[in-house]
Amino acid sequence: MERTIPSTESEEVELYTRTYYSLLRSTAEVQIRTLEEVHAGMKSLLHPGARNPEPDMAAFIYSLLRLPPCMSQVRLVVLGQSADVFARAGFGNVYTWQEVSATARRRRCFFDGIDTLACFIASRSDIDDIIPLLTAYQIEGNKLHRCLQRLSDPASLDTMTDTALGLRKLAEIMEVSEEDLDRLYAVWDKDFGARLRPIAAAPIHLRVQLLSGSLSEYRRATNSWWSNIEMAIPELRERPVYFVSSNVHSLVNLLTGFALQHQETLVEYLKLPRNAGLLNEWKDIQARRVPSSRENFLYYVLKKYQQTAEGQAVAQQQQSFEQASGITRIAGSKRFFEVESQVIDLTKVNPETLDPRLFNGLGDQSSGSNPEFR
Predict the structure, then answer these.
(1) Which of 75, 164, 271, 296 has the fewest CB atoms within 10 Å, i.e. the most exposed one?
(2) What gap in Å lies between CA 302 and CA 322, rounded to an integer?
(3) CA–CA distances in Å: residue 276 to residues 32, 262, 282, 350
(4) Residue ranges of the alpha helices (H) in the chain?
(5) Positions of E strands within 252-351
(6) Is 210 left (phi over 0), alpha (psi -120 to 50) or beta?
(7) Torsion, Cα of 233, 235, 241, 246 (10° steps)
(8) DSSP letters spanning 316-333
(9) pLDDT at 361 over 80
(10) From CA 23, how far away is CA 18, in angstroms rounded?
(11) Strand 116-120 versus strand 76-80 pairing type
(12) What residues contact 233, with CB distance under 8 A and at least 6 apart?
């Protein structure tokens, strides 16, 4: 891995990245507490309340959703490019550890069941993602720890969530709004007490270690990832390829418009009692009471719907639809970068089904024969 410091426009961000890249370069364990001040000084939009004494629940929940649920037990986070790198550093075969994942991140991680989390990284951007998440988690977790010292008995957390009065009292103790506490409860659900008790019991002291992977090691891992793609679609060797780094759903949503064609089905799903909040949001969008995008909302609902038993048939339809639209999904390499890839044959993309926002400024989309698109 290249260990150069990424250039940035913001002096605060540049100082932050320069600090943690400098510390990580030694390959020794780095205390996350040494990054807290420079992290707060960055004044991130995702963590505006870093220096406030009361918890910034938006930042805490954001980090929770992007870190594995075992974080309450983790004390050391180790970053490496391949299983060989972890083995050479003395961690053994991490594939024998428990595989864990985050709700909002598709990063491959393994937990040793004690206090060590091994995370596979594919690029420097992974480091730039993980370090702020760990720092925000520790800063806000320790604020909650200090607040929860007012509890006479941490075991009472389980019973306090049983009543509206108990939740109101807990919100006061934690110095958060009842709405924020509800959001945290929705994230942890039945594990709420089990996840909050360790935070109440002891402060968080995380360490992170970047294993020394050479540039040749990184290239070897990248070549393995690309070979996996070439094996699936050999004709790529003879065709020009344009690489785009994005979430696995973003371009597919725009280039197929699949969710938009199933709006009626998705709205019926919203009418289920458990989706009352989403249904109200949909009504607000339809009535233009909020500036949210109809298309983005339907893409989000499609993802949730496909995670249900009744949505599996639609998920299968989407796979067939994508293939007909020239989109092939390729699973990541199990041994190196488990990063899903999508190969999109632009000659097969159907303009009739594109997200209509792509046609802004390109003329009439109704005919499906836009010369500028083609």
Answers:
(1) 164
(2) 15
(3) 40, 19, 10, 34
(4) 11-24, 36-41, 57-65, 83-86, 124-148, 157-160, 164-174, 178-188, 192-201, 215-232, 250-256, 258-261, 263-270, 276-286, 294-306, 312-324
(5) 327-330, 341-344
(6) beta
(7) -10
(8) HHHHHHHHHTTEEEEPPP
(9) no
(10) 9
(11) parallel
(12) 328, 330, 343
Q: Three-class SS of residue 58? A: helix
* Spacing of C-alpha 155 from chain mean position: 31
**pTM greater than 0.85 (yes/no):** no
Max Cα–Cα distance, the chain, nearest Å = 71
Tens digits of per-residue pLDDT, 76-133? 999 998 888 899 999 999 999 999 999 888 788 999 999 999 999 877 888 999 999 9
Q: Which residue has the tokens 């064609």?
A: 261
Parse the chain into domains and list their residue ranges.
Answer: 11-210, 234-359
Q: Which residues contact 173 (CB under 8 A, 6 or more apart)?
A: 147, 148, 150, 151
C-alpha 243/C-alpha 344 separation (Å) is: 10
Which secondary-structure segment (H or E) carries 306?
helix 294-306
- Distance from C-alpha of 271 to C-alpha of 265, rounded to nearest angstrom: 10
Nearest Cα neighbor of 325 from 253, 233, 262, 250 is 253
Report the pLDDT value the prediction gives residue 122, as an integer from 0 to 100.
78
Task: Give 7-34 pLDDT, tens digit per residue.
Answer: 444 788 888 988 998 888 877 899 999 9
Cβ 300 vs Cβ 259: under 8 Å? no
Reported confidence tier of residue 215, pLDDT bands at 50, 70, 90: low
Q: Which of these, 103, 96, 105, 100, lies nearest to 73 by C-alpha position? A: 100
Amino acid at 355: D
Question: What are the structure tokens assigned to 220, written together?
Answer: 């070897």
CB-based contact 280:273 (threshold 8 Å): no
DSSP-derived secondary structure letter, 5: P
Q: Which two tokens stand for residue 346?
A: 């632009």
**Residue 71's closest CA among 136, 6, 18, 20?**
136
CA pseudo-torsion sign 146, 147, 152, 155: negative
CA–CA dist 349, 337 (Å, integer) = 28
158 burial via Cβ count (<10 Å: 0-12, 13-18, 19+): middle
Q: Structure tokens of 83?
A: 């299983």
